[in-house]
């Protein structure tokens, strides 16, 4: 779960990390009120979960009121890689002489958190990692002991951070690690940490992603997640408790189990179609979940046809069939053609129950996907 | 032969009195697994389907000589349950639970390096040696005895591939779900190493997915150490970067590491054919036998 920059910065500031003065704004008027208070230069930053906001035109620096108005008009409401910008952060510009990267993430391979520091700040760190991996200093933290303060200092010096600010940067990093642990973050980074001409340090950006599996013990962050949905369908999926990802195609996909649902998406693509979504109803789903899943996919206006693929282990084919019937019998006319494939536990019982006047049925995954792709093509022709 | 579990495996079920634990313990017993004990704090002295329940894993091991555990404990308490299994020095612990916080698993992983216990999972369907034992939630009826080893990060994808194999009359020595989380116990390499050492396994299927570098490491291992032929499948070719595709571990990073293509390329470079469809995978297996 990704927090917005402004949410993360509030958390950083509360923990004692210096951040520039800022205001949130959702209209041009609010932006102008904000710059009147903050002064110039002021950064106007789109609050959407999109990497490379700056390059895409989502961050502009205004040096006077006219510019602030112009940039506010440009950015508010703009489409940034598929997301509409509804909120901007208006932030005091920083007179910086240097930019650093500091972050904490989980090194999956090692199974340990890792501190990362680089003097190549302000650019995409993953590009730095690929092109000049030596430019990033790393230090693994023993997850059982937690961070020893010397480790934060060590990695900052190793990265070659200027000696006069090194301890301040180490202190930011140390606080970031505490936040990483305390808030069950999966990733936390400041890129850039700006060093000002007065040799102060400040966190000019903030990335904080929270482990979704830990939200049960992070109630405050779970509330922030609610505010953080940017897509009505993703919000709905969150309410239903589905694993759901929206894509740009027109073949709706429902299935059970992450690997099999991903495979169904891949097969849609393989047979010439375009997947509209990933939707995993999970293990052991009852009829009601199935009805909710169909409701989700039907409410996506991009979807032209649906494939419903179940391989029952703990999920039972008869429950799934019951759910499909209940969902579809409510319609005078089925909104989108649904192809169903049931296999595994109680698949035969399911096939007996399934109302085949309402759905198309295929025996194999491959055949079901091909038919759904064909159905989608027929709609778009 | 088989790997990791057989009809001598003596199983304690942690969480046997919960809904899932009770149901699947019953299914395991029905399949023929030696479920010798349950372990649930505060429920010692009870019995579930004739299986005696103990308050601690330690007591279960002491009284019933259990050597493997299956863990059906809710996410908030699951890491503690895994620690309990590891600290009791069982041969094998199978963690079925999905949704354990990653930082908890990092702590477990640290402990894992200090014990001889093998951990499978978490967030996995378990392990089955057809005709002998199953530890977990895999539907026993779709598997059959045979000479193909199967290792996978996903449950239902495993069932799909097994189904495609069954249609061709091909059975399994052992099928293993290693789990869909970012930090897991047994890796692809561990399972492949065991299959390579198993005389009865004549071919191996590995089903990977996006995220991490386990498949790439497996490819290197296959290229350098395996004579047994391997075929692969990688799910998530169409997954957009930065989105978690159901499994906590199934995520392509923003810069494009952990992609399906990188894994497919690594496997192909190691001489491992990767199927475009589950059907293709079965074709490859058939060609090996």
Mean pLDDT of chain A: 93
Helix amount of chain B:
25-40%
User: What fold name stands as the CATH topology of the largest domain in chain A?
Assistant: Rossmann fold
* Share in β-strands of chain B: 15-25%
Query: Which architecture of the largest domain in chain B per CATH?
Result: 3-Layer(aba) Sandwich
Q: Give the oligomeric state of the chains in this entry, treating copies of one chain as homo and distinct chains as hetero.
A: heterodimer
Name of the CATH superfamily of the largest domain in chain A:
Succinyl-CoA synthetase domains
What's the number of helices of chain B? 9
Chain-wise SSE layout:
The complex is a heterodimer of chains A (381) and B (289).
Chain A: H1 5-14, E1 22-25, H2 28-38, E2 42-46, E3 59-62, H3 65-75, E4 79-80, E5 83-84, E6 88-92, E7 96-107, E8 112-118, H4 125-131, E9 136-140, H5 149-159, H6 163-182, E10 185-196, E11 201-203, E12 207-210, H7 219-228, H8 232-240, E13 243-246, E14 251-255, H9 258-270, E15 277-280, H10 287-298, E16 305-312, H11 317-329, E17 337-344, H12 347-353, E18 360-361, H13 365-380
Chain B: E1 10-14, H1 19-31, E2 34-39, E3 47-48, E4 51-54, H2 57-64, E5 68-71, H3 75-87, E6 92-95, H4 102-112, E7 118-120, E8 126-129, E9 133-136, E10 145-152, H5 155-166, E11 172-177, H6 188-197, E12 203-209, H7 214-225, E13 230-235, H8 260-269, H9 278-288
Parallel strand pairs in B: 1-2, 1-5, 2-4, 5-6, 6-7, 10-11, 10-12, 12-13
Antiparallel strand pairs in B: 3-4, 8-9, 8-11
Helix pairs in contact in B: 3-4, 5-9, 6-7, 7-8
Architecture overview:
- Chain A: It holds the Pfam family ATP-grasp_2.
- Chain A: Its EC number is 6.2.1.5.
- Chain A: Its cofactor is Mg(2+).
- Chain A: GO terms for molecular function: ATP binding; magnesium ion binding; succinate-CoA ligase (ADP-forming) activity.
- With about 375 residues, chain A is an alpha+beta fold.
- Chain A folds into 3 domains: about 20-90, ATP-grasp fold, A domain (Dna Ligase, domain 1, 2-Layer Sandwich); about 95-225, D-amino Acid Aminotransferase, Chain A, domain 1 (2-Layer Sandwich); about 230-380, Rossmann fold.
- Chain A contains 13 helices and 18 strands.
- Chain A has helices spanning about 5-15, 30-40, 65-75, 125-130, 150-160, 165-180, 220-230, 230-240, 260-270, 285-300, 315-330, 345-355, 365-380, and strands at about 20-25, 40-45, 60, 80, 85, 90, 95-105, 110-120, 135-140, 185-195, 200-205, 205-210, 245, 250-255, 275-280, 305-310, 335-345, 360.
- In chain A, the strands form 5 sheets. In chain A, strands 7, 8, 9, 10, 11 and 12 form a 6-stranded antiparallel beta sheet that branches. In chain A, strands 1-6-2-3 form a 4-stranded antiparallel beta sheet, with helices on one face. A 4-stranded parallel beta sheet of chain A has the order 14-16-17-18, sandwiched between helices.
- In chain A, helix 12 (about 345-355) links the parallel strand 17 (about 335-345) and strand 18.
- Chain A is elongated, with a radius of gyration of 25 Å.
- Chain B is an alpha/beta fold and about 290 residues long.
- Chain B folds into 2 domains: about 10-120, NAD(P)-binding Rossmann-like Domain (Rossmann fold), CATH 3.40.50.720; about 145-290, Rossmann fold.
- Chain B has 9 helices and 13 strands.
- Chain B has helices at about 20-30, 55-65, 75-85, 100-110, 155-165, 190-195, 215-225, 260-270, 280-289; strands at about 10-15, 35-40, 45-50, 50-55, 70, 90-95, 120, 125-130, 135, 145-150, 170-175, 205-210, 230-235.
- In chain B, the strands form 2 sheets. In chain B, strands 3-4-2-1-5-6-7 form a 7-stranded mixed beta sheet, with helices on both faces. Chain B has a 6-stranded mixed beta sheet with strand order 9-8-11-10-12-13, sandwiched between helices.
- In chain B, strand 5 (about 70), helix 3 (about 75-85) and strand 6 form a beta-alpha-beta unit.
- In chain B, helix 3 packs parallel to helix 4 (about 100-110) and helix 7 runs parallel beside helix 8.
- The longest helix of chain B is centred in the N-terminal third of the chain and has 13 residues, at about 20-30.
- The chains are: A alpha+beta (about 375), B alpha/beta (about 290).
- At the A-B interface, helix 4 and helix 9 of A face helix 4 and helix 5 of B.
């Amino acid at each position: 779960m990704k927090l917005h920059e402004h949410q993360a910065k509030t958390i950083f500031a509360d923990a004692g990390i210096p951040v520039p003065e800022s205001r949130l704004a959702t209209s041009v008027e609010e932006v102008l009120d904000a710059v009147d208070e903050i002064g110039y230069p002021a950064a106007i930053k789109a609050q959407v979960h999109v990497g490379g906001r700056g390059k895409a035109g989502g961050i502009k620096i205004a040096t006077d009121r006219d510019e602030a108005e112009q940039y506010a008009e440009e950015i508010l409401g703009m489409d940034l890689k598929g997301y509409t910008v509804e909120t901007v952060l208006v932030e005091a510009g920083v007179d910086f002489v240097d930019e650093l990267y500091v972050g904490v993430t989980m090194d999956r391979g090692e199974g340990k958190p890792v501190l990362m520091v680089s003097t190549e700040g302000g650019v995409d760190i993953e590009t730095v990692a690929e092109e000049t991996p030596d430019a990033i200093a790393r230090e693994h933290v023993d997850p059982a002991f937690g961070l020893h303060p010397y480790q934060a200092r060590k990695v900052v010096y190793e990265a070659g951070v200027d000696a006069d600010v090194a301890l301040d940067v180490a202190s930011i990093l140390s606080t970031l690690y505490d936040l990483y642990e305390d808030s069950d973050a999966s990733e936390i980074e400041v890129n850039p940490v700006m060093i000002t001409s007065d040799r102060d340090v400040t966190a000019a950006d903030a990335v904080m992603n929270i482990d979704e599996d830990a939200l049960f013990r992070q109630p405050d962050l779970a509330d922030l997640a609610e505010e953080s949905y940017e897509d009505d369908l993703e919000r709905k999926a969150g309410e239903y408790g589905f694993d759901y990802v929206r894509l740009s195609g027109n073949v709706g996909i429902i299935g059970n189990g992450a690997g099999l649902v991903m495979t169904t998406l891949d097969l849609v693509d393989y047979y010439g179609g375009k997947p509209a979504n990933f939707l995993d109803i999970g293990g052991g789903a009852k009829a009601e979940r199935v009805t909710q899943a169909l409701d989700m996919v039907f409410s996506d206006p991009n979807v032209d046809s649906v494939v419903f693929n179940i391989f029952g282990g703990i999920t039972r084919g008869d429950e799934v069939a019951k759910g499909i019937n209940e969902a579809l019998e409510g319609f005078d006319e089925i909104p989108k053609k649904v192809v169903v494939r049931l296999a595994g536990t109680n698949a035969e019982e399911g096939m007996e129950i399934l109302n085949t006047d309402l759905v198309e049925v295929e025996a194999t995954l491959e055949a079901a996907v091909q038919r759904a792709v064909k159905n989608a093509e027929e709609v778009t022709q | 032969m088989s790997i990791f579990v057989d009809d001598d495996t003596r199983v304690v079920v942690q969480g046997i009195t919960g809904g899932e634990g009770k149901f699947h313990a019953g299914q395991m017993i029905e399949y023929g697994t030696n479920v010798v004990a349950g372990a649930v704090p505060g429920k010692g002295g009870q019995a579930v389907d004739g299986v005696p329940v103990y308050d601690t894993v330690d007591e279960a091991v002491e009284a019933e000589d259990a050597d493997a555990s299956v863990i059906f404990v809710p996410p908030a308490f699951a890491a503690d349950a895994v620690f309990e299994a590891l600290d009791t020095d069982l041969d094998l612990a199978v963690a079925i639970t999905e949704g354990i916080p990653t930082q908890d698993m990092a702590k477990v992983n640290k402990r894992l390096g200090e014990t001889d216990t093998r951990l499978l999972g978490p967030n996995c369907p378990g392990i089955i040696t057809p005709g002998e034992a199953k530890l977990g939630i895999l539907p026993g009826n779709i598997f059959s005895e045979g000479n193909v080893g199967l290792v996978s990060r996903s449950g239902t994808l495993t069932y799909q591939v097994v189904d495609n194999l069954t249609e061709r009359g091909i059975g399994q020595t052992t099928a293993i779900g290693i789990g869909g989380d970012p930090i897991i116990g047994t890796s692809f390499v561990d399972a492949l190493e065991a299959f390579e050492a198993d005389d009865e396994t004549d071919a191996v299927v590995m089903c990977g997915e996006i995220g991490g570098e386990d498949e790439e490491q497996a490819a290197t291992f296959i290229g350098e150490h395996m004579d047994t032929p391997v075929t692969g499948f990688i799910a998530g070719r169409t997954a957009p970067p930065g989105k978690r595709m159901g499994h906590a571990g199934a995520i392509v990073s923003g810069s494009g590491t952990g992609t399906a293509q990188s894994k497919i390329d690594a496997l192909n470079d190691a001489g491992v054919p990767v199927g475009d469809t589950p059907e293709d995978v079965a074709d490859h297996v058939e060609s090996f036998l």
